[in-house]
């Protein structure tokens, strides 16, 4: 995904170097520290020399995908296809240098090996970044003047910049929107605004255009635009608070004054951010874990995962200082709005509908209703729910997965949004094809397309699948649309649209239309009904292996398709994993290890889940095997470590796996049990759940399971209500497979 109106702050000593390729500063990994609330690094103030110009955006012109657009893939020209696999199956393991933990501020002998050094510490509030810059060993004959350079725009974008020595501020704007060619929205007035406020007066200043600097100039407009401010050689510390806004420079300045006003020390800002994260991360206490090497410490992986999973969708609204009133810019309307509500963006829904949104209902429930209202606000503006929204619609990925997210919230008791409108939006997804549906391929990153929603819906409604010879990624679309039909039927039930709910429920059986009984795989189909049987055609970031198991709403029904039924599906799952086909680095694989349990083999799920967790997650800088994808990769680990996972996120069910810890205590926010309604806050309104699994670190198999003393028998399933209202969930673990949970799920359909 492209950047949005970004700015870059770059400290230095000596001569100002405005060009990206000239200003790189070296650092040692042992001099770096990162936490949820402060980042610190020691920089060698001597530039590393001119880097390769070809690495810059200027060299790439518009980049490999100008405006975010992609070219027609070869396989689309031959038939109809799109993405295949975007990530390698290889797991990279990195070993980091061990070093004692530091606190922000100068460490003893910090500058060993550097003639001059800059100690950088950074913290933040929602709309303000706070930098502390310590210019070290800058004494005697070799004194160098400290400076800070701000790059407002790159070579292809025209921005504005202003230096105000009296206020000790630099302000400006940047209109860069890298995915401007994707989707139908055209926010032509978009800008990212900023105000950087310094703690020390400027000794001199100027504006830069590329490599050319105009000393003493206080304003500028143009491309490749920057500004620099210098400080007296005696200055040892400079602090910079940078407010950002998508509304205006004035709002960026207001964000500083409201969030980190003058007089708030760096230490106080660090403590404030630390407290905010502790309010979330401190709600979970872990006891009894596998004492493995530091690179695989499950506590570090778990808390880091929760930290990742609680960052998106991001609140794009900004404070006004007038109570609950918020202001925000919309890329859909290309205008500024106000509301007594938050407004969320960064909706990677194809990724996050799987587990991330279920996680938010547990660990950020106070935000869920507002997120649903944002989805419906976008529907009001555009007539469609978002697919992959990044300020505006990008049409990246496939399917109408907002349908699933709305069903997920409703099934978990969240009702703080307009249910009638939600059903109108979901109904439109299910029954109204996109504009020009039969004229466009809707391939990945096809530029200037209408809202893509369910491309190929014309064919899907006619005969039950998306035609491979008419639309890209047809097989993945068909399977996803079948699941989205199931989700839409859930929304319809909540909205009392029972007749339509039944029709959509029946339509969710369309996954059967892609089953090739001869090959025992799902395959794309052409408009004349023939299977392609070409492994490269029809898939979205996956292949026939993973998508054969892409039936999250009816895995037991899927099992009836295999020769040998459940045993046949188990054999195919074994071939999938043992043959190296399971690429957990991409989301379609995330539910697959849990499918064993859904068809009566929970012991296999326990083994595969632990195998996947160990191979794909660690506590190094290469700690994830694939992109985080706005929390989904980490949500998988958090749920799996607790012992259950939302295989079907449009339901209220969690399939039991294998808990990693002997004891986990969770303090749920009051909103978790009330559907996000306003309730009494504080300890009185909270609920505490204790999950126990004695011996879990070395005993992966579940022997029995109780919820508040009640035996869980039959299918290996917990319901959302069990988790948010119970006081105790008790696993009895075994070091050998057991008979518990071997009944599996009941098929939704008889195939």
UniProtKB/TrEMBL annotation:
<dbReference type="Pfam" id="PF17678">
    <property type="entry name" value="Glyco_hydro_92N"/>
</dbReference>
<protein>
    <submittedName>
        <fullName>Glycoside hydrolase family 92 protein</fullName>
    </submittedName>
</protein>
<dbReference type="InterPro" id="IPR014718">
    <property type="entry name" value="GH-type_carb-bd"/>
</dbReference>
<feature type="domain" description="Glycosyl hydrolase family 92">
    <location>
        <begin position="251"/>
        <end position="735"/>
    </location>
</feature>
<dbReference type="InterPro" id="IPR041371">
    <property type="entry name" value="GH92_N"/>
</dbReference>
<dbReference type="GO" id="GO:0000224">
    <property type="term" value="F:peptide-N4-(N-acetyl-beta-glucosaminyl)asparagine amidase activity"/>
</dbReference>
<dbReference type="GO" id="GO:0005829">
    <property type="term" value="C:cytosol"/>
</dbReference>
<dbReference type="Pfam" id="PF07971">
    <property type="entry name" value="Glyco_hydro_92"/>
</dbReference>
<feature type="domain" description="Glycosyl hydrolase family 92 N-terminal">
    <location>
        <begin position="1"/>
        <end position="245"/>
    </location>
</feature>
<dbReference type="InterPro" id="IPR005887">
    <property type="entry name" value="GH92_a_mannosidase_put"/>
</dbReference>
<keyword id="KW-0378">Hydrolase</keyword>
<dbReference type="GO" id="GO:0005634">
    <property type="term" value="C:nucleus"/>
</dbReference>
<dbReference type="GO" id="GO:0006516">
    <property type="term" value="P:glycoprotein catabolic process"/>
</dbReference>
<dbReference type="InterPro" id="IPR008928">
    <property type="entry name" value="6-hairpin_glycosidase_sf"/>
</dbReference>
<dbReference type="GO" id="GO:0030246">
    <property type="term" value="F:carbohydrate binding"/>
</dbReference>
<dbReference type="GO" id="GO:0005975">
    <property type="term" value="P:carbohydrate metabolic process"/>
</dbReference>
<dbReference type="InterPro" id="IPR050883">
    <property type="entry name" value="PNGase"/>
</dbReference>
<dbReference type="InterPro" id="IPR012939">
    <property type="entry name" value="Glyco_hydro_92"/>
</dbReference>
């Amino acid at each position: 995904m492209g950047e949005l109106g970004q700015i870059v702050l770059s400290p230095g000593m000596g001569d100002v170097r405005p060009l990206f390729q000239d200003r790189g500063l070296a650092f040692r990994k042992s001099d770096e520290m990162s936490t949820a609330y402060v980042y610190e690094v020691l920089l060698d103030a001597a530039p590393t020399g001119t880097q390769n110009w070809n690495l810059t955006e200027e060299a790439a012109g518009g980049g490999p995908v100008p405006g975010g657009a992609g070219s027609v893939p070869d396989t689309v020209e031959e038939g109809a296809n799109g993405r295949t696999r975007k990530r390698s199956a290889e797991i990279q393991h990195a070993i980091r240098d061990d070093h004692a933990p530091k606190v922000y501020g100068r460490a003893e002998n910090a500058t060993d090996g550097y003639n001059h050094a800059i100690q950088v510490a950074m913290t933040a509030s929602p709309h303000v970044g706070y930098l502390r810059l310590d210019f070290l060993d800058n004494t005697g004959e070799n004194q160098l003047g400290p400076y800070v350079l701000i790059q407002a725009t790159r070579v292809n974008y025209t921005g504005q910049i202003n230096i105000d020595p009296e206020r000790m501020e630099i302000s400006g704007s940047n209109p860069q929107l890298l995915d401007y060619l994707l989707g139908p929205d055209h926010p032509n007035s978009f800008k990212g605004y900023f105000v950087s406020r310094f703690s020390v007066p400027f000794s001199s200043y100027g504006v830069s255009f590329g490599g050319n600097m105009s000393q003493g100039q206080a304003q500028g407009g143009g491309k490749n635009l920057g500004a620099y401010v210098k400080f007296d050689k005696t200055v040892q510390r400079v602090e910079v608070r940078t407010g950002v806004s998508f509304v205006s420079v004035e709002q960026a300045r207001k964000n500083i004054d409201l969030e980190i006003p003058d007089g708030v020390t760096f230490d106080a800002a660090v403590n404030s951010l630390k407290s905010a994260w502790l309010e979330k991360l401190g709600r979970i206490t872990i006891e009894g874990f596998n004492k493995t090497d530091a690179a695989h410490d499950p506590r570090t992986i778990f808390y880091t995962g929760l930290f990742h999973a609680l960052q998106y969708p991001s609140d794009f609204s900004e404070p006004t200082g007038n109570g609950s009133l918020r202001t925000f810019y919309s890329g859909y309307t290309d205008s500024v709005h106000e509301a007594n509500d938050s407004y969320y963006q960064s909706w990677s829904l194809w990724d996050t509908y799987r587990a991330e949104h279920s996680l938010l209902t547990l660990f950020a429930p106070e935000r869920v209703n507002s997120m649903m209202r944002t989805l419906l606000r976008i529907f009001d503006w555009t007539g469609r729910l978002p697919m992959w929204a990044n300020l505006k619609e990008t049409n990246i990925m496939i399917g109408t997965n907002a349908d699933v997210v709305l069903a997920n919230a409703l099934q978990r008791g969240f009702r703080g949004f307009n249910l009638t409108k939600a059903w109108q939006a979901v109904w439109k997804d299910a029954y109204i094809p996109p504009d020009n549906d039969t004229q466009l391929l809707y391939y990945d990153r096809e530029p200037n397309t209408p809202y893509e929603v369910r491309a190929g819906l014309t064919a899907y409604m006619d005969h039950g699948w998306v035609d491979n010879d008419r639309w890209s990624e047809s097989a993945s679309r068909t399977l996803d649309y079948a699941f989205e039909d199931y989700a839409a039927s859930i929304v319809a039930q909540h909205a009392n649209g029972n007749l339509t709910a039944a029709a959509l429920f029946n339509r969710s059986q369309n996954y059967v239309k892609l089953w090739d009984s001869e090959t025992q795989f799902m395959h794309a189909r052409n408009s004349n009904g023939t299977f392609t049987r070409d492994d490269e055609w029809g898939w979205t970031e996956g292949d026939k292996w993973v998508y054969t198991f892409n039936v999250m709403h009816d895995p037991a029904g899927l099992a009836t398709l295999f020769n040998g039924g459940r045993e046949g599906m188990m054999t195919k799952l074994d071939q999938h994993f043992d043959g190296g086909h399971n690429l957990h680095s991409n989301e379609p694989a995330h539910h697959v290890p849990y499918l064993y349990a859904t068809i009566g083999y929970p012991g296999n799920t326990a083994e595969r889940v632990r195998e996947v967790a160990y191979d794909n997650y660690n506590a190094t800088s290469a700690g994830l095997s694939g992109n985080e994808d706005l929390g989904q990769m980490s949500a998988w680990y958090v749920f799996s470590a607790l012992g259950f996972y939302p295989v079907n996120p449009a339901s209220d069910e969690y399939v039991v796996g294998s808990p990693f810890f002997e004891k986990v205590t969770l303090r749920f926010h009051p909103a978790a049990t009330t559907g996000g309604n306003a309730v009494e806050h504080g300890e009185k309104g909270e609920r505490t759940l204790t999950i126990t699994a004695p011996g879990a670190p070395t005993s992966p198999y579940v022997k029995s399971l109780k919820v508040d003393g009640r035996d869980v028998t039959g299918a290996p399933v917990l319901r959302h209500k069990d988790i948010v209202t119970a006081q105790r969930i008790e696993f009895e673990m075994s070091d050998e497979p057991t008979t518990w949970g071997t009944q599996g799920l009941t098929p939704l359909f008889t195939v």
